Integral membrane protein (Mycobacterium numidiamassiliense), 389 residues
Amino acid sequence: MDLSLRRTGRGRASAAAAAESWFLQRGLPWVLTRRARWRRIWPRSAPALAAYATLQACVLAVYSIVGGGDIEITGTPTAAEWVVLVIVAFVLPLMALVGWLVSRLRSGRTRTVAASASVAVVACGAVIVSGPTQLLQEAVVIVAVLILTGCGAGSVFGWAVRMMLSHLATVGALAVRALPVVLLTALVFFNTYVWLMAATISGNRLGLAMAFLIAIAAAFVTSATVERVRPMLNSTTALPKDTARLADTPFSTMPDVRNCAPLKKSERLNVVFVLATSQLAQILVVAVVTTTIYLILGLIIMSPSLLNEWTHTYASTATVLGWTLPIPDSLIHMCLFLGALTFMYISARAASDAEYRSTFLDPLIDDLHTTLIARNRYRSAIATSTESE
């Protein structure tokens, strides 16, 4: 495709739309011009609006079952209570599924219809559940979705979700590298004093501690990433292999340029964010798997007497988001703490491990370098088209 004036106006617009979508799918919205980022925000917002409409439809279903009152399950749940439990259990996966299905739509017109239908569902649900006064709040949510989409947040979030799913295949390799910390945290798991901490610490303090550890880990990864990509940010000279990688993209017929405008600060931040987030997503998957393993282990070995021996309490339930779960609160705190430790250790290891960089980071850098070559071609074509007009 070509963005020059030798094409018709409709063909030029179609080529520009394809190029913009290519960058948005790779989590690089700030490569686009400001006008391009705010173009077609209604169909681009369709996945988020559809996911939110799914949430409101589930709320409406629960409201229809319980009649607007609270529900308290004591003993064996009734058929209606089982339906409510199933809806609550599957609302997040259902939202993700609906959003993904809408994101797979390629037609802008179809996406526009999906976005409009989603807004209609949200409005109907709000009126039925809370009355017309709720429409103002729902309007604020929809406007916020549109603004975030125009700013590029939707592109980055969608890319992050795809990266999270694609990195599930790397769990085995990273888990082998994380084996030393798994063995180390096993000693922490069977430490009485750590269990006392987990039993007495509040949820807010635990959240602050985890945020502190995760922030340190993110700093490790980000600083190492900046050092690694600094040459690429300063020079994006096209290489033959990069040209070959762009063969089946909207930039295949655009010429390479030698003196393209350098990356802006926002573009540099976008590049570093993409690389750092991709690595952190890999590490997060391993940390979540480790946390799940310890949670299952705790459920297997934790008896009331052992719980009292380690935590000096027989409390065997926890309240999460208003739901009472038959899991000791101290066990949840312990598993979250071990997951944060695992996350921090692997992040530090990834920042200094040459084998990890060659296996996981270098392919990401090569792909991103190709993307920046496409950025140069895109910016040059846009500038040429503007001058011609």
